[in-house]
């Protein structure tokens, strides 16, 4: 820092300190800095203590109405409340130096100032600029040339907003205290009243109150507020969001008497049965008159119900005695009998009104608050595991949540009530029950809404230090009080809200002792709520374990761990862009383990700013105008001595983006050159870049220059330190590559070299100056004389100032004024994100990651969330009989609260429908019901669907009657006959002309032009209409979504982007099939990194149908995954109407379609485009049977899947959506792009910065792909599209092929060759069966000679015109672990992959001489444990190669792994420490007789970062000796019969006789019989050797027993004691001898089979029965208060006996036990509620018998229990005989007389 800067900063600091310290509110900080800078322990001056949210009133009725902040501030205003919201005078200064120092003085003239709206951020009102960053602090850059470090705040660019207004205090506030409340100000502010300093505060999202009574004057008062955008408190507010500042929430005045109820807390404590509750109250009463001690005051409390009726007979009274104290706390507790409970399902609210009376009994103040009776706690489960659950009112809660920021596209974080209501309505409508206030306290109104609408809240302290979380706050004492203050503000404000169930210490702020202190502090304030903090899951800190974005497998790993705490995901399922795939997989896992209790999706809504697009397009060109390059910044004539400069404009960046042109796509020698003037050191600032995965000249961090090239996952760089005079000086920077070396030049000197040979990778990103499009990085530099060559220049050439462009110069830009041009643009409204505001650095769209667009338009994925989150589930049991299981996952709501309806559809037509009345399914139970439909007669080609839905019966706050809260579609197993094929002989004749490259096919109705050179159709005309303009062409690309970009897919898979476009047709054959069909076969290659091949076949029929068959053979399994496999067609614009029969109505993807039912949907093509904030893949539909595009007359084109396709119809090509930053920038075509695909990859969503779609939803290059569809013209006015789709026109002769009775995987009639794997050791040739398309097809099957042979199938049509030959090559393969199921598996990160690395790449290990790629194996991540059950499998050895996968850096300090193998618990292999640089190690272990194989990957005790471990080529080698195998059911219950089958394997001799012993535990199972499965095998003799041992002799009659076939059946039954005495039993076959037809004997290795017993957990039920019996025994029968009616006691006993019967029945299953416990719990509650609470017969509740009671009996006279309104009158049945007659009148009369 130079001396001028030092003086400037010192003067600024002195002026700041002096201007405030002279005001007398407090002394200035001792370190000479102002409060807002470098003073982490100074966060408030003269601020009032935090308190609960409430507004004081003067009477009870008013407080009753205004008992929440929404009511108090918008509906029922208190006379002691005055809003200061509205227009204020405002001045903006870019830093503290520039602010108006004396503006707070009354004499300061603000008449020339503009006005600004309060509340509101100034960036949203025309001042300053938003900044969108995630981890980076917003003041690192963005106008600041140096990055300050904590606790220092920036001063170079740190805007200050000066606010001023006047106000008048109401006359009736005289003699009272007056406070000003700021509900939220970002980030720090000072307050003056009438020129006098009142105080100072930080913490942007918590209320700050100041007592301004001493500063007021009669009449008009002035209020001045000075707000700093950033302060030292900003180090604690690094939340990933759009960063804004100003007075963001309400400002108001409130008035209190001089003795005032300053604060109060309300705690509801339910009893052990969750019925009655203690209402625990604490009230803080404050005396503001410091000169006197007031006389005792009285606080009264009255609870009111939902109808505003008092609950207590008398108010609760609490006497206050100050005794010289200025503040005292009084408390009381009141029992409330069985109040209505609060939950998200049924948010019952009461209202508590507190009244303060002075010593004379005069009411001086009232205040109200809403009360919800609920108990939230952690309890240990009763299953004996010791695991804990979070329990609400006795029920285990499931968090179906979402994270939410306060955000609006128009007002930023200053959200209004209407927007909040919209949010909560949508959350409820989409089945969300919880919200996390990420990452700060929400607006106070939000909690009122959560209380009212029903939403659980995880309430988070305003604390995030993401960018410095390793050092702040950590364990530093200077931050402790600041952290505690933020925690205190949260807890005190929100402690009385029933919706708040969990406190969160903050977000992404690291760990350290400060969090232990914070946690302990919160517990001291509120011990009733558990504590959460993802950043420090220490048991001393948190009550639950929380993770962000764990893999599904991580959930299971935790569930099996020893940590007993409940587990939630505070963030998961990242919703950026088109996302939220595989959400169902998360919830399948969550529901598997009881202590996994859900999570919060990130995020609720895109954070963005509504903006207008530019009115003109700015572009740079060259002298020849050979290109138009977009640019930002401004072109100036000169910068000092340098002429023609592109420099930043305002706070933005200077950038230039070249159009996509092959000449810039350099992959060999080059030179990059520019003159640059750096204005600040922004990390990784680009100079010239082709993304981040090709080449770039850039800064590396903030201290170096770098030139790199990228190849195969590795960056090779030449680097050098920045020059000492780097900033604010011009430098000549260049980098070159000559085929052997990278060279880096600075100011005419070589400063760095690095060897590199060969070509490097290409990517899809444009060449840019001053930015990197792939990473979104920008720089803060000025540019001149940018050159790019496709050769390496010498140093002499670089230093030649007279050099001119030659042929090798692909870019020559001098930034002369004449190069900068513009053209007018149509303006569009759009949602802006980082970079659109001029912010630099920025993380661009990082905050646009919600389930809704910024304006609350739901994204398509929200429908999937609704389905996955729904609380009523329907599962098929036996749909032939209409049987389904309905699971009610609500905690408290019976399923009968909703209208349940069903419909049976034949395709899209409803053929039966009805309602499910009287559906009594209590919460947390499952019930099997029968849907009363009649099974229809299956019609050919028709699918049948059962659709069940549950709807609201009446309007609610959040949805109208009829809103669907749950639905399920089930496919009926109808086995409908296939639709008969069209008679090909009846088709119209085709005229085929094959001339050179053109083929014309026509008849009366149609004409098709086919281009053999491109292998595609040029035109289809049908009945005079042109149906297509182009296609189908092979397509393998989709417009990358945000998840794709985050995991590197655009670069990694770039080889596929233009593969279809740049295909080479090698062969096109035209084959007429008779005169009515013609087939065109096209073969070609694709220019992928390793050349791939493809085939397309077009079978054209005389009726206009065209069957298109596709086949893709990737060139190598090492090629990257394929984004999409399909075809693309261009359709004329008139065919705008789209109809499809498939999943809908919203877009859906293979990993996001569980909430998309199959149906027939209609729309228009225009509506298929969803405007994600950055254009991307959109509009897809899965499981499509057919799709049509038609015009207004109904004519058009149909595509029919065989059987399914994925489809997508847009006015955009994938290329149109690949690159534009905003939807309005995407090129909209009039024509329609129709994609008819096999599939595209899933969208993924585990996170958006590395996670790929899950393995089942990838399209890997390790297999071939084939699929077919039919294009069918549609005549005008076609009425029934469904019927049109049913016609089958085909030349296919085979419908299916089965191998050993199972459909051949991947069978396609057009695919002729198949491979079928047979596990080594099986010597039987598989049986092949063929199902032909009709009875006239001739089929000949020639079986393979042996298991290494080939089965050949020849088929031909009856007329011989069509013949095909299918071949199935059998291939004996090893027993690879990746083809087997493990018994259990855990992993430390992501999910274990089969045949792929943990990152989803090919398995690659370091070999002795380079990288070795493996096709088979297991990819995992430390710490991992995989267990395989080898019992009875007769394996001989285990072989594998272990090592660190080469997808991680070989030079990193991480990737330290140890591999271990355990055999039956004994360690048999230990690799020692291995790293990415370690050569892989081979493992070969003897596993004869081993029952359990355990594979362990550990992290070497130093953390598991980059610990990617592979078990490559992992396989089990079967033994060569003959062995037996038992197979059958492995899970049984008590008294359950079950069978095991016995077979022999590896037996090479002829077997005619068999002798063996069956071994079993007779205490656990009974062996009923041993019988033969095959006719040729007979049981000759059986003898029991001893209990549990049976010897068996068997003989083969006439022919030898075959190896590998099931021979004998062993029939068992479990015993009654099974489930209580053991968890499993072992059954074995031993002493096995076989003999051949010559009498030669041989031994066979025996086998063992383990049968697991289903464990029935009855402990909880037995305990409940004992408790209920004790309650029954202690209950006194009678009519007096406290006694129980006889009928109630009898009913209770019956319930106990019913439960005991289930507990004592050994055959009871777990669901019956669970239901019995639920029923008994309900019976206990019913019994307890039946207790007499008053004198029987005291009708009017006055405590005595009078004629008033007699009159009420007389009114009911004549009623009987059979009357429909009996419930209204049964109170008068005093003798309990089911009728009201003279006996009841006499009873009452006798009581009155007595």
Walk me through the structure:
By secondary structure, this protein is mostly beta strands. It folds into 10 domains: about 5-50 and about 75-255, Jelly Rolls (Sandwich); about 255-375, Sandwich (Immunoglobulin-like); about 400-550 and about 560-610 and about 835-870, Glycosidases (TIM Barrel), CATH 3.20.20.80; about 615-825, Jelly Rolls (Sandwich); about 870-970, Immunoglobulin-like; about 985-1290, Beta-galactosidase, Chain A, domain 5 (Distorted Sandwich), CATH 2.70.98.10; about 1315-1375, no CATH class; about 1375-1520, Sandwich (Jelly Rolls); and more. Helix content is about 10%, strand content about 40%. It has 22 helices and 110 strands. The strands form 24 sheets. Strands 68, 69, 70, 71, 72, 73, 74, 75, 76, 77, 78 and 79 form a 12-stranded antiparallel β-sheet that branches. Strands 45-44-43-42-49-40-37-36-54 form a 9-stranded antiparallel β-sheet, with no helix packed on it. Strands 31-30-29-28-27-34-33-32 form an 8-stranded parallel β-sheet. A hairpin with a 2-residue loop joins β47 (about 740-745) and β48. α4 (about 415-430) packs parallel to α5 (about 445-455). This is Beta-galactosidase. Its EC number is 3.2.1.23. Belongs to the glycosyl hydrolase 2 family. One of its GO terms (molecular function) is beta-galactosidase activity.
